[in-house]
UniProtKB/TrEMBL annotation, chains A, B:
Domain Pyruvate carboxyltransferase: 7-267
InterPro entries in the cross-refs: Aldolase_TIM, Carboxylase_cons_dom, PCB-like, PYR_CT
Protein name listed in UniProt: Oxaloacetate decarboxylase, alpha subunit
Source species: Trichococcus collinsii
The organism's place on the tree of life at top rank: Bacteria
Amino acid sequence: MEKEKKVLFTETVLRDAHQSLMATRMSTDDMLPIVEKMDEAGYYALECWGGATYDAAIRFLHEDPWERLRQIRKRAPHAKLQMLLRGQNLIGYRHYADDIVDRFVGKAVENGIDIFRIFDALNDTRNLKASLEAVKKYGAHAQLTICYTISDVHTIPFYTDLAKELTEMGADSICIKDMAGILTPKVAKELIPAIKAVIDVPLNIHTHATSGVSQMTYMAAIEAGADIIDCAISPFAEGTSQPPTESMALVLEELGYSTGLNIAKLEEIADYFKPIRDKYIASGVLDPKMLSVDPKALIYQVPGGMLSNLNSQLKQAKASDKYEAVLREVPRVRADLGFPPLVTPMSQMVGTQAVFNVLTGERYKMVPNEVKDYLHGKYGKPPVPVNDNFRRSIIGNDAVITDRPADHLEPEFARLKAELGDLARTDEDVLTYALFPQVGKAYLQEVYYPTIPEEQAEIKAPSQGETAESVIRIQARYRS
Amino acid sequence: MEKEKKVLFTETVLRDAHQSLMATRMSTDDMLPIVEKMDEAGYYALECWGGATYDAAIRFLHEDPWERLRQIRKRAPHAKLQMLLRGQNLIGYRHYADDIVDRFVGKAVENGIDIFRIFDALNDTRNLKASLEAVKKYGAHAQLTICYTISDVHTIPFYTDLAKELTEMGADSICIKDMAGILTPKVAKELIPAIKAVIDVPLNIHTHATSGVSQMTYMAAIEAGADIIDCAISPFAEGTSQPPTESMALVLEELGYSTGLNIAKLEEIADYFKPIRDKYIASGVLDPKMLSVDPKALIYQVPGGMLSNLNSQLKQAKASDKYEAVLREVPRVRADLGFPPLVTPMSQMVGTQAVFNVLTGERYKMVPNEVKDYLHGKYGKPPVPVNDNFRRSIIGNDAVITDRPADHLEPEFARLKAELGDLARTDEDVLTYALFPQVGKAYLQEVYYPTIPEEQAEIKAPSQGETAESVIRIQARYRS
Ligand SMILES: [Co+2]
Ligand SMILES: [Co+2]
């Protein structure tokens, strides 16, 4: 009877696993030799693009992200290729105009993407609209995403309402994205049946192993009706990455679930990636601390990455003794800002504001520009409205955007193409420039004028995950 | 209602966690400053002695294991201190006479041990008898152990019969010891209620996170009625160690279980051990590979440590291409030998015999002396009797011990004390010499005659876990 129950697996080793463990530094050369095997292993999907992969490819690896995608597609004719898209932010760090969104999605489909996992940091569904429309227009699969967070307002009814809205918008599947690894078995047991009851499309659960509960959370989620889980092949599993593909598959098969996975092929894939993992450990790219467990995220209900950012900001300010005070300030700032999920860019804004509030000794004496933009409505709608008096105390009587933020953006593709001049040889080039004006332009110059001296390329220090650029911006402003 | 359900935690960071992750190399100095905090955290027990700790202390750390125990006891007046005892092997590598067993247990109680987890590699209960009697005599808690393994004969009824026998012998609690990390949720769901039904003492589950299923196995075990689980504080958790204490406690408390643990204190303990873990990683003592997942044990139903031993034996013999052939030979050898559990020393015997059988091209052309001793009955009774013809083909018509092997051993304490001469200043010294004749004597010479040149101390290369001495012996014999 139970044998009829299916669980599908999305493999993250080509995207989230190395993004989470080693700041997205896996090279295309390390991926391609095994892609054919991955194509045959029985996965539901291979997550292989989006998130920070594009940024890391042009910024650190000096690789063409589009060429990586085409090469993967060529070797995986059967598997569904999946990418992570930050809604109106695409894979960059600001809201882009709708024409850029349309072009980007079109090109991603053309180069090989089948499934788009689309999320907005505020769960503001208006920020998903343009990418959803584009995905539909180009005939791909739109997986709309619930960013999971914990707060007074993020209740089961809040999430079921959101899930219902995403289905009504036309989601082909729904993802619960637990970017911080704080979804627990208890909550999964309650949340998943509630969501399944209001949707008629597959439900995908995404978590991270960081806090040492993810295997249990997946098991509870599956028992509660989840259809798809995200796992990483064992050499790149656990720690800040996902639970191991083979282990989850073996356990579930033994319990009578059908996964469609071929264990022998998974083992070959693991054997392939093991020396690659060891190579990145030996070269220092993969810090072994990333492989270990840190339950602090679970204790403070704050993502682990945010905790370590706060810690290092306070160290830089020689105020490490204020750590507990800042941790107590975080939920207060979050409440003031309408309980945003603690994901990029909100985790940086909330964290930096909490640090400011504690270090200056006066709440909101100093406010980063990003927080002001947020209060102007430029990022979208907070989960609950911000108190009017609070807002006025920060941005006075400035006008506030209450409709879709991107409605205020003029088309920009043609302008950017013109700006880029003879570096704009393909639409992909223009997108690279649109998404990463400085780094993208430097990259294109490297490609088309390889003799140009190195120092023109803007090289930045490695930093963790998707948060790179915005953390740097906020910290730069703090120092200035 | 569920709130009444209790789960108790045994903390392994002072014994199994560092034994599994870094070959038992944690120094007493790294333990003592946090023991008072551990005493207050609400653990059921602190596993802190036995296993390979004694050997590693005198062999590699040049530390007095008894002094470590006394110092821990002094700082933990409330907590129960637990040790791992290999039945008639105590913490050494052969069967010792009953008088040694009695003295050792007596001294362990005197120096601070409350709970003895006693196991025999063959699950031959006669090998537990002398230590059980001694533990009772000195008024401590005897936790008798089922070594969990997978084979045709290790069925649920096999284990329930064993559990019943252990209870009848007088076990104060029972442990299911899954040394290889191959106990799955499915089996836990069946095995644990079956065992609980025939015992009236608490049931403790011990597993390792190696194959990436342990969180799920613990959860299934607890739902099925397990009373105590073994966990490691997060910096020394996962990988080849146990699941993280804080994570399991948080998840279980949220599900309505009462753990008795103080999360704030656990966090302080984790904060203490994090830089210690990082120090051992930086110095190379903790190989980061030990922190990662390897589901191969689950696939081959063979402990991970045995797989890597086989791999390195074959590499040394320049026969890496025979790996698959050896893996196929392992279950055949195991069947020939009556399906022994694959734990020290049986895992080494079975593995080496399988290598011999494949490399010589003729099964049992070459047989290690340990296997011959085993067939003579010197290790005890196999789970099922060895075929007579098979035995005769190896050891001819030699007499076979069928009663308790230790009944054939003369008392040895007095003799060894005399042998040791003026190095025998305490009973503990005699035990050190009894357990580790060469290394122990060298250690005592260092202690009492510190001017004696270094080269008299027998220094061996680090090797993994409990298996150190016997693997080296078997490999040495193979080479000679
Ligand atoms: Co993720
Ligand atoms: Co163990």
